[in-house]
Amino acid sequence: MTVPWALVDGWTVTRRDLMHWLREPAPVIIGLLFPVLMVLMFGFLFGGAMAIPGTADYTEFLLPGMFAMTMAFGMEATMIAVSTDAQRGVTDRFRSMPMSPSAVVVGRCGADLLNSVAGLVVIIGCGLLMGWRAHGSVGATLGAVGLLLLLRFALLWVGIFLGLVVRNPEAVGAVQILVWPVTFLSSTFVAPATMPGWLGTIAEWNPLSSTAAAARELFGNPGWGGDSWIAEHAVLMAVVWPLVLVAIFFPLSVRRYQRLSR
């Protein structure tokens, strides 16, 4: 089983998922608009009450964090899609075909990553309409976008693995409950310095916080100015955290897929 074979099979599965979205676009459209609703809610409804130490414009602080949170939100849709395919027997049908063992999970990852690119474009466009701007260089701006997509790529594998483990779509809801506290317990909306000491430390070490802080730095937007090691090395950790997650959950996902129905 060569790498080209795996890539070709993976692209076939990606196309299958994309065609499914074209036939039923409503869930995709809702998924694209939900982050926009979150941005408008926190930016306009709650933004006037938010205060970030040393930061005058809350919108400039908020938007990079929301970009990072959008990359995390998509993990739930991945879990539901994977568990639904497993429950309906689609996954077993794929396993009976002469194809690469990693093709199904790689294909799902490819389709969801393309969807995430579209989602990031939509929410960046929303941010521009709200007055947010990237003040960094073109290279730094592209680097920030790359780090956001790298986080999404890593979290896709977490979602694929959880979807294969929790094969009942209804039970996925129980796992989804954990996604919200993890995403909110970060520097997305407020500075960890405003939290109780122990809680702020947890928020600082949240991988989402590293990507949000790195995006703010590369976009040239105001950050929260933490002086801890993790805060001072946000760009480095925005690379390290996703690589660690991929190194853990990619092999786990492939192994779990190969062992289904055993």
UniProtKB/TrEMBL annotation:
It comes from the Bacteria. It is found in: Cell membrane; Membrane. It holds the Pfam family ABC2_membrane. It is a multi-pass membrane protein. The keyword Mitochondrion does not apply. Keywords: Antibiotic resistance, Cell membrane, Membrane, Transmembrane, Transmembrane helix, Transport. Coiled coil: none annotated. InterPro entries: ABC2_TM, ABC2_TM_bact-type, ABC_2_transport, Nod_factor_ABC_transporter. The chain crosses the membrane at residues 26-49, 61-82, 103-130, 142-166, 178-199, 234-254. Residues 26-260 form the ABC transmembrane type-2 domain. Belongs to the ABC-2 integral membrane protein family. This is Transport permease protein. It comes from Actinophytocola gossypii. The lineage of its organism: Bacteria, Bacillati, Actinomycetota, Actinomycetes, Pseudonocardiales.
